[in-house]
Amino acid sequence: MDWKIELMFAVRALVAAALGGFIGWEREWHGREAGIRTYASVALGSCWPRLKVTKIQGPAMKRQSLLRSDNK
């Protein structure tokens, strides 16, 4: 397990939740429905699949770059 990659994923997930929470806070401040928890959850939920795909594609992308004939 590469801890740098895991830390990067954790930071990205926290940033997504924080930005979603900020948008939710702004909505609550204006008295609208769907506030902090909703937007933080949606942002984290939309971030999660992309992180999983990135983790799965990581080793495969390295193999593809080794097999390409136009490497520089």
Number of domains: 1
Give the N-to-C terminal Cα separation: 29 Å
**Average pLDDT figure:** 84
Residue share in helix: over 70%
Shape: elongated
State the low-pLDDT regions, or none. Answer: none
Helix count? 2
Helix/strand order: HH
Number of strands: 0
Q: Sketch the major β-sheet.
A: none
Structural class estimated from helices and strands: mainly alpha
Q: Which SSEs are present, and which pair or pack?
A:
Blueprint: H1 3-29, H2 36-67
Helix pairs in contact: 1-2
Family: Belongs to the MgtC/SapB family.
Main location: membrane
Membrane topology: Multi-pass membrane protein
Can you walk through the features of this model?
82% of the residues lie in helices and 0% in strands. It is mostly helical. The protein is elongated, with a radius of gyration of 18 Å.
Summarize this, please?
This is MgtC family protein. It is found in: Cell membrane. This protein is an all-alpha fold and 72 residues long.
Task: State the main characteristics.
82% helix; mainly alpha; 72 residues; 2 helices
